[in-house]
Amino acid sequence: MSFDSSHEVEVGRKNKLLTIKQVADLLNVSITTIYRLTDDRDLPFYKVRGGLRFDLADVETYLQLTRVESKQSWT
């Protein structure tokens, strides 16, 4: 694992752990919304010393699963 100044942790090669603030910023929602998603177990997370961390791949999967297709074809 490596640490950098933005508190982003690299796990393995591709997985990145993000803080709750980073996830809220990424999804453009409030931190309260992220807590709600974790309380409802809609968004997977890790507990690290009492703090929450999120795998970037899990956040991307959540976005794909919550996507609503339009009626119109975009070809």
Supply the key terms.
single chain, 75 residues, Arc Repressor Mutant, subunit A, 3 helices, 37% helix, elongated, disordered N terminus
Ordered list of secondary-structure elements with their pairings:
Layout: E1 2-3, E2 9-11, E3 15-19, H1 20-27, H2 31-39, E4 46-48, E5 51-55, H3 56-66
Helix pairs in contact: 1-2
How would you sum up this structure in a few lines?
It contains three helices and five strands, in the order βββααββα. It is of the alpha+beta class and 75 residues long.
Account of the 3D structure:
The protein is α+β, with helices and mostly antiparallel strands and 75 residues long. It has a single domain, classed as Arc Repressor Mutant, subunit A, CATH 1.10.10. The protein is built from 3 helices and 5 strands; from the N terminus they run βββααββα. The chain has helices spanning 20-27, 31-39, 56-66, and strands at 2-3, 9-11, 15-19, 46-48, 51-55. Strands 1-2-3-5-4 form a 5-stranded antiparallel β-sheet. β2 (9-11) and β3 (15-19) form a beta hairpin. α1 (20-27) crosses α2 (31-39). It is elongated and about 45 Å long. It starts with a strand and ends in a 9-residue tail after the last helix.
